[in-house]
Amino acid sequence: MTVKYTEDHEWVKAEGDAYVIGISAHAAEQLGDVVFVELPEVGKTFAKGDEMAVVESVKAASDVYAPISGDIVEVNNAIVDEPAKVNEDPQGGAWFVKIKPSNSAELDALMDEGAYKDFAGNS
Amino acid sequence: MPAADQNSLKKTPLYDLHLSLGAKMVEFAGYSMPVQYPAGVLKEHLHTREKAGLFDVSHMGQAFLRTTEAAIGTGEAHEKIADAIETLVPGEVRKLKKGGIRYTVLLSEKGGVLDDLMITRPARDEFQGTLFLVVNAATKDDDFALIEKTLCGRAQMERLDAHSLLALQGPAAAGVIETLAPGSAAQPFMTIARHEWKGAEIFVSRCGYTGEDGFELSVPNSHAELLAKALLAAPEVEPIGLGARDSLRLEAGLCLYGHDLTPETSPIEGNIAFAVGKRRREEGGFPGAARIQRELSEGPKRLRVGLAPEGRAPAREGAEIQSTDGKKIGEVTSGGFGPSAGAPVAMGYVDAEFSKTGTQVNLIVRGKPLSAVVADMPFVPHRYYRG
Question: How far is the alpha carbon of A58 from chain B, nearest alpha carbon, in Å?
Fold first, then answer.
């Protein structure tokens, strides 16, 4: 599957029967230098749109919302230890969490790459 | 972050230069100002502490205040203008040396801080009876109106709206300024000197808002961009936005007016008692003197303190401060991540009994208590020039 995006600038990508979630390169650039990341605990359940993680730059704090409903199956502690990774590789190594979805149909509502680029370009 | 609506905002003479340097512009005090350049807040902050950073602070208010009770340049002229301004500020202005700069505050009748400002006594004899004032951007119209009204018949105000203000801060600043204004490297901290530069008169003050050695240059608008470009031509100098200006001053423990100081806070509560002169403490004669004298003798009910959160999560302005048993004891007024401190740093007001360095407190961040300790400021040592 290709990468999909939310209007809150999270990205979602399939990996096995889970989905990897992070923040977009556009969001990382807008935030500026990330200095703090707080991730949820493995096993926690979120509904789509819930505040799931926190990312803070030198400038401001920002919530990261669950793009889809489901259970957290893995978190990326590397970005908690080294928040600057979020600026270096936001759509690769600096993923936030992996979610096992409870309703895969929610993915249909998300934007594809082209739609997100248009959206981010206007935001 | 919404982009600044460029049309409705005021611009400094360096506006075009900021855009050409790739600045991200935001609204600040009615001006379109650079919040950061492509390097970003973190690198700009660290660069300033390591080398030198150039800041456009032309949005701040500059003015000359001249006595009308004596001829400018005569023996009694300074005393006249000092006595006049001392009815509004608690700082020692009368005994300020020629060329000296003083940090003090404008006070309300209730002893609250209406603004913090720099007052400079000219160095040269022929200008005695004049004071050079630099006040905050957001408050400048109110400040100048208050001063004019209160000192009506005693002093006359000349706003320097046709002057820009540039700050060059950092350990390499002195060497760079020396090439444009010879003698600056040996100029004492908190003094002013007048220079000619490319046909313009510029005032060079050795002061700043970063905790580093540095200078503020008052320059006619006609020469502002030329001067900024001359400073940026030095390899040590990079342009720095308001984002890093804020994190630098926070680490230095310096107050941001409207946040860490407000009309509700006295300078004693604000932990800037040094803004109240020794003679003035005894004599009074400034607005709110009774409150300030009482707080000096009995201690204030609350105090601005430094706060060092444990861990890496920053606590920001507005976060409630609680005692370890869960009672509200104050509020964070500035907070964020200190790039040089390598840790979150904050300041806020706490009830006096919790103001001792080392006191454990909780900061409520996103509904959860975050452990923090009352800490000495500055968070990063000041490196002012001491000769």
Answer: 6
